[in-house]
C-alpha cells in the first residue's frame, strides 16, 4: 500500500482509494474474494455491487461496507446472510481504521465446508478487507469547486496570471464575443481567489 499525501487531511480534503483492487484470501477451505473501489455516489456503489453479484452469482455470501461524504457520515454495512455483525461491520471497521471515505469494500465468500465460527468469520472478513486496502493506494483528494469566468479579451493576461499564481486548473475554454473559462479550485481557496478576481474589471463570475 502506498500513501500519497502532501499534508495531513484538512477541512477541504479527505483520504480515499486511488483505483480498484482485488485479490483472494483463504481460510480453512473457504475462499474470500476481496474488492476495493473508489466511489462517489450510491448509484456508483449499486452498479459495482450489481456487477459483482452477476459475476459471482454462485457465491455463498457477498458482504460489503461503504462510506461516503467528506466526513464519512453516510455509510452502510451488509452481512448478506452471515451471522449479524460478523462480516459487514469488520469490513466497515477497516475503512474507518484508515480514515477513508468515498470507498466501497466487498468480500465474496465461497464456503469451503468447514464452519469458521463467529470469531473466525470476523477475522476472515477483517483480513480480507484489510488486504483490499493494503493492495491499493491511499491518496488525499481535495474538495473542489468549479468557477466560470467571462471577460473581455484585453483582460486575458491579468486573468491568466491569477490562474497560474493560484495553481487553478482550467477545465474548459470558449471563445465568443468575450472569453469564457471554466476552472477547478480547492474549496479552501474560494474567498482568496474570488477577492482577487473582483479586482479585475468587466469580469463576471459564476460558482457552479
Automatic annotation (TrEMBL):
PROSITE patterns: UPF0029. One of its GO terms (cellular component) is cytoplasm. InterPro entries: Impact (IPR023582), Impact_N (IPR001498), Impact_N_sf (IPR036956), Ribosomal_Su5_D2-typ_SF (IPR020568), UPF0029_Impact_CS (IPR020569). Residues 28-132 form the Impact N-terminal domain. GO terms for biological process: regulation of translational initiation. Pfam families: Impact_N. It comes from the Bacteria. SUPFAM superfamilies: Ribosomal protein S5 domain 2-like. Belongs to the IMPACT family. This is Uncharacterized protein, YigZ family. It comes from Algoriphagus boritolerans DSM 17298 = JCM 18970.
Amino acid at each position: 500500500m502506498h500513501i500519497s499525501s502532501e499534508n495531513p487531511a484538512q477541512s477541504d480534503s479527505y483520504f480515499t482509494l486511488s483505483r480498484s483492487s482485488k485479490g483472494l484470501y483463504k481460510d480453512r477451505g473457504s475462499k474470500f474474494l476481496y474488492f476495493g473501489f473508489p466511489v462517489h455516489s450510491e448509484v456508483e456503489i449499486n452498479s459495482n455491487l450489481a456487477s459483482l453479484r452477476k459475476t459471482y452469482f454462485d457465491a455463498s455470501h457477498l458482504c460489503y461496507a461503504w462510506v461516503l461524504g467528506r466526513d464519512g457520515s453516510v455509510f452502510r454495512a451488509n452481512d448478506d446472510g452471515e451471522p449479524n455483525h460478523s462480516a459487514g461491520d469488520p469490513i466497515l471497521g477497516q475503512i474507518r481504521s484508515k480514515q477513508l471515505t468515498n470507498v466501497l469494500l466487498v468480500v465474496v465468500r465461497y464456503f469451503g465446508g468447514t464452519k469458521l465460527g463467529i470469531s473466525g468469520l470476523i477475522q476472515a472478513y477483517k483480513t480480507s478487507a484489510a488486504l483490499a486496502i493494503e493492495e491499493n493506494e491511499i491518496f488525499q483528494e481535495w474538495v473542489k469547486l468549479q468557477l466560470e469566468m467571462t471577460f473581455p479579451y484585453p483582460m486575458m493576461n491579468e486573468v491568466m496570471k491569477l490562474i497560474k499564481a493560484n495553481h487553478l486548473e482550467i477545465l474548459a475554454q470558449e471563445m465568443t464575443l468575450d472569453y469564457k473559462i471554466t476552472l477547478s479550485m480547492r474549496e479552501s481557496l474560494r474567498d482568496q481567489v474570488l477577492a482577487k478576481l473582483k479586482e479585475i474589471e468587466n469580469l463576471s463570475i459564476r460558482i457552479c
